[in-house]
Design brief:
The chain folds into two domains: 237 residues, 3-Layer(aba) Sandwich (Aspartate Aminotransferase, domain 2); 129 residues, Aspartate Aminotransferase, domain 1. The chain contains 13 helices and 14 strands. Strand 6 and strand 7 form a beta hairpin. 39% of the residues lie in helices and 14% in strands. 47% of the residues are buried. It binds pyridoxal-5'-phosphate (PLP). Pyridoxal-5'-phosphate binds next to helix 3 and helix 4. The site of pyridoxal-5'-phosphate (PLP) has 14 residues, from helix 3 and helix 4.
């Protein structure tokens, strides 16, 4: 058996929807992008949603709209995909990396408070592999200090916090539709906001700063000339992607329910293994289980990379846990002298197990049996 660590749930209907779009002649900024935005806003409970080319461009535009620039500092967790920190550097601001909580892997409030300076312009929280961070705590901190809160919700489409879907809580929430996330448009991203001026500016920036977009011009019966109002970017989502996204969004709740069933099987199967720590979901937090990450305690019989190799030898792909940005080559000089012990330990001692839809019961059982066989000392019978 060969088991990948993840795979997208895409079907022929999704592709057909995209194909039909091409027949209407729309490729960018057409009706499908608008429909996807409206449906995503409705799904999350945000007032507006703006579709872009991926989550990295979403984060870049969020920084611009938040007014972050040279001389400013933005605090984010080091333990995240590197794009989180990169978007801060794109606008010339300084990345200030914070620690995570060792149990949730989400950004640590007390550590963030210590890192706030008069230059802190924004705090970029990450909903780690689908588990929401404590949004309310960061929202009140930001309000008190006059700082902007931005959410990197790349992995968190469909996750919820205190009863509200991610996307509904604050003014700049960035999502990804990369194939590694819970729903995909190939590549793609979305920003949700409840502020109309943000939505308008984001739409301007994603399309070269163009004052009147091509759909409006196309639909006009009189000649419309446009102007470019500010330095913009080509960060558009295409109608082809949006058509796939609409179909994916219809399946999102079902995909999450299926993912949670698999996660529950893992929880139950591994509950008695004392040398590991399983993912937790506190009261009021609802994870889409974008990934299932297991922490290996120091007393775990073998090291993490050996475990990954042993799993691979059995045909099971795994991944190391979420990376730390400050130890990547691109950040080594930038972060010289920075040590973040909790993040480093969490990164080095965690492993991501296969979780995708559909995963057959046979595949789930094989992962469980293989993992247990390697985990448990020879005479330990569970
Ligand atoms: C995947 C991911 C990104 C980047 O998303 P893209 O759509 O690939 O640009 C950013 N932040 C986090 C936390 C991610 O997991």
């Amino acid at each position: 058996m060969k088991i990948p660590v993840a795979k997208p749930y895409l079907d022929a209907q999704d592709a057909q929807n995209a194909y039909d779009t091409i027949l209407t002649g729309w490729v960018t900024q057409g009706p499908k992008v608008q429909e996807f935005e409206e449906k995503f806003a409705q799904y999350t409970g945000a007032k507006y949603a703006v579709a872009v080319s991926n989550c990295t461009t979403a984060l870049h535009l969020a920084m611009i709209v938040a007014g972050v620039g040279e001389g400013d500092e933005v605090i984010c967790p080091s333990m995240s995909y590197i794009a989180t920190a990169n978007c801060i550097r794109y606008v010339g601001a300084k990345v200030v990396l914070a620690e995570v909580n060792p149990e949730t892997y989400n950004i640590d409030l007390q550590d963030v408070i210590k890192r706030i300076t008069p230059k802190t312009k924004a705090i970029l929280i990450v909903h780690q592999i689908g588990l929401p961070a404590d949004i309310d705590a960061f929202a009140s901190l930001c309000k008190e200090k006059g700082i902007t809160l931005i959410e990197d919700a790349a992995c968190a489409a469909g996750s919820a916090y205190k009863g509200g879907k991610i996307g509904s809580h604050s003014d700049l929430v960035c999502f990804s539709f990369h194939p590694r996330k819970v729903i995909t448009t190939g590549d793609g991203g979305m920003i949700t906001t409840s502020r109309q001026e943000y939505a308008d500016r984001l739409k301007l920036l994603r399309q070269h700063g163009m004052a009147i977009n091509d759909r409006v011009r196309h639909e006009s019966t009189t000649v419309v000339l446009t102007d470019h109002l500010e330095l913009g970017y080509n960060y558009r989502m295409t109608d082809i992607q949006a058509a796939v996204g609409i179909k994916q969004l219809e399946k999102l709740d079902w995909i999450i329910a299926e993912r949670r069933k698999i996660a529950l099987q893992y929880h139950q199967a591994f509950a008695d293994i004392t040398t590991i720590r399983l993912p937790i979901e506190q009261e009021g937090y609802f994870s889409n289980y974008q990934s299932y990450s297991v922490y290996l305690k120091p007393e775990f019989p073998i090291n993490r990379d050996e475990l990954m190799q042993k799993m691979l030898d059995e045909g099971i792909s795994t991944r190391s846990g979420v990376m730390t940005t400050h130890r990547e080559t691109a950040y080594r000089a930038y972060c010289a002298g920075i040590i973040l012990p909790v993040s480093e330990d969490a990164c080095d001692r965690s492993i991501i197990l296969p979780l995708y839809v559909p995963m057959t019961q046979e595949e789930i059982n094989f992962v469980i049996e293989t993992f247990k066989k390697i985990c448990l000392p020879k005479n330990d019978i569970l």
